[in-house]
Amino acid sequence: MAHRSDWVTRDLEPRVVRRTLAAVVAMTILVASVVYVRGRRSAHNDVQRYRTDVGQIVVAGLGDGNRAVLAPRTTLHVTTEHGVRVATLHGQVQFLIADTAPPFEVRAEGITVRAHGAIFDIRRYDDDVDAQVVALHGTVVAHGQHALVTVTPGMMTRISDSAVAPVATVDTAAVTGWMQGRLIFQDTPISSVLATLDRWYRYEFRLADSALGVRHVTITLPIGTLSETIDRLHTLLGVTATVEDSVVTIK
């Protein structure tokens, strides 16, 4: 297990690194399951492998001054191909890529993000129809089979292997809220809110009426106990919940 000092890198703008580090330190207070690890390479194909469970965050040193913060239920494999560091992602990760390191690529279900000297967040779970890419510092390039887009700091795109949404300004605090103990949803379908909660709590969230799932909401949910989350949903959305075994039914 690595120490917090392993997170500090001189290759990126100091204030950006301090803010990111502060967010991760805050998570160690708010969430019990934050794990710091150094990159471990397997004997087979020199691959570093990482995986997070429900409600768990992993802070990983990837070598060459690169760092990654993995959100819950995420897998990440990192290797080197023809001098380029390549990460294969399923889930959500915030990357810090040093400007002194070799080029870095992230691949997720048909899309590739290329970065150098940048901090960015990329998300693609099974229930996501496309990948969400947000640049926090520096510039990244994302492309699929028939689409390519450049993303600059404070901007976001959604991209699949065949299509790309226009780059738009994004609230970066909302994107990175999970690192600071908050799940921030803006104009999000309730079905997507519950899919996210599934990854943070050891419960399956279901809707009693599927029609409720298309309702869009803007809500901030502190990451806490299940009862606190249910109370917050009731207060802000007017919904109720019943808990039976490991299933939470929202009405």
Explain what this protein looks like in three dimensions.
This protein has two domains: 167 residues, Jelly Rolls; 70 residues, Phage tail protein beta-alpha-beta fold. Strands 1, 2, 3, 4, 5, 6, 7, 8, 9, 10, 11, 12, 13 and 14 form a 14-stranded mixed beta sheet that branches. A three-stranded mixed beta sheet has the order 16-19-18. The longest helix has 17 residues. It is globular, with a radius of gyration of 18 Å. The chain is built from four helices and 19 strands. Strand 11 and strand 12 form a beta hairpin. The protein is an alpha+beta fold and 251 residues long. Helices cover 18% and strands 43% of the residues. The N terminus is likely disordered.
**Span between termini:** 42 Å
CATH topology type of the largest domain: Jelly Rolls
Q: Return the CATH class of the largest domain.
A: Mainly Beta
CATH architecture of the largest domain: Sandwich
Report on the biggest sheet.
Answer: 14 strands, mixed
In round numbers, the mean pLDDT is 83
Number of strands: 19
Number of domains: 2
Structural class: alpha+beta
Specify the helix fraction band: 10-25%
Outline, from the CA principal axes? globular
Q: Helical segment tally? A: 4
The SSE order reads HEEEEEEEEEEEEEEHEHEEHEE
Give the uncertain stretches in residue-range form: 1-18, 24-34
Backbone CA Rg? 18 Å
Quaternary structure type: single chain
What share of residues are in beta strands?
35-45%
